[in-house]
Fold this protein.
Amino acid sequence: VLLENTRYRAEETKNVDEFSQELASLADVFVNDAFGTAHRAHCSNVGVTKYIKECAAGYLIEKEIKFLGNAVNSPVRPLMAILGGSKVSSKISVIENLLKKVDKLIIGGGMAYTFMAAQGKGTGTSLLEPDFIDYAKKMIDEAGDKLVLPVDTVVAQEFSNDAPSKVSENGMEDGWMGLDIGPKTIALFTDVLKDAKTVVWNGPMGVFEFPNFAKGTNAIATVLADLDATTIIGGGDSVAAVNQAGLGSKMSHISTGGGASMEFLEGKELPGIAALTDKQ
């Protein structure tokens, strides 16, 4: 029996008992293989487990737990994490959790500009979270050489693939915005990653959707593809970027859950997995 999307029911996302019981009445055994929603407590993945005795993880969830769990809790070292994407604010918990565990934490993408501002460098019209500059300063002070930040940036005056660009070092001038990591940063990140044995990557290094500003992201994808290491791509835009570069098959594991993999990397318990009687 194939059910229609359970989210057509308003009760689903509120984890209402009556709907959980309805779903449970259809089965004797429940197998959950939806890692992408494991960070949410809904009727179809958490509520239903209250009314079915035997509840198990499927093979995909098993694989996700194995790769992400080993990377965070018992990695082959050196363990390195690469965080990119647009906002520091959405990755504070991930940064704090990973800094306790990794040998190196590389920061790129739009979130790097808040760290750049924390270093006293100009950020022009780049994406910036002023409220998190003090937080970035604190992280720089506490992490020491464990934190690896960009040393140059590819900048343009417009958010467009065809915008004329240049490489800027030591910050950006007024009217210019960062759209990718620069060549010296690519070389720096490549050098840091060369000895890695486990790498977790979440978030692109620039506006990879624009071919002219995808060089940094593609370079990192190529480095990971050539490493003799366990390489884990943590969902969302990183997956799109790796696949766009044609290197998805060269990675050890590509996570199917953007939000779920992020919360896992934060060290949070995922309700969709915690509710299962057989998690292995």
